[in-house]
Amino acid sequence: MTVTTIDRIERLQLLDTYRAVLTERQKQALHLHLEEDWSVTELAQALGTSRAAAHDLLRRGLERMEGLESRLGLLGRIRDRESELAKLRERVRRAELKLRASASGSESS
For the structural domain made of 1-72, what CATH number should be given? Predict the structure, then answer.
């Protein structure tokens, strides 16, 4: 199961968002595979199962999270809110700079 860095980040974000709805075994498998970077072979050995069963466990967990995201869009909404928050922080930063500049300009007058 080879994934790009972007896919890995996306999957980690899905796991953070939807972890609570996974089975304990799916949580454990996805945690070890995505967060601890375990291979499917290492995962299968740790779970005492075949490589194919470990792969299926990961696939089912990912499909569940992706299905929920397509129906609920929670991760998309979280990203939208984070983007809006970043814009607000930037506006506050600029306002603070203007206030400092006007305060230092009035002190020199």
Answer: 1.10.10.10
Query: What are the distances in angstroms from CA 36 to CA 30, 40, 62, 67, 91?
Result: 9, 12, 16, 24, 37
Residue-level pLDDT at 2? 55
* DSSP 3-state of 50: coil
Instruction: Please enumerate in sequence order all residues whose Cβ is within 8 A of that of 75, keeping only pairs 6 or more positions apart, or say none.
Output: 13, 14, 17, 69
Q: Which pair of structure tokens corresponds to residue 28?
A: 């454990």
Confidence of residue 32 (pLDDT cuts 50, 70, 90): very high
Distances (CA, A) of 72 to 2, 14, 17, 78, 82: 27, 12, 11, 11, 17
Give the residue ranges of DSSP H helices in the chain: 5-18, 24-30, 40-47, 51-72, 74-107
49-99 pLDDT tens trace: 999 999 999 999 999 999 999 899 898 899 899 999 999 999 999 999 999
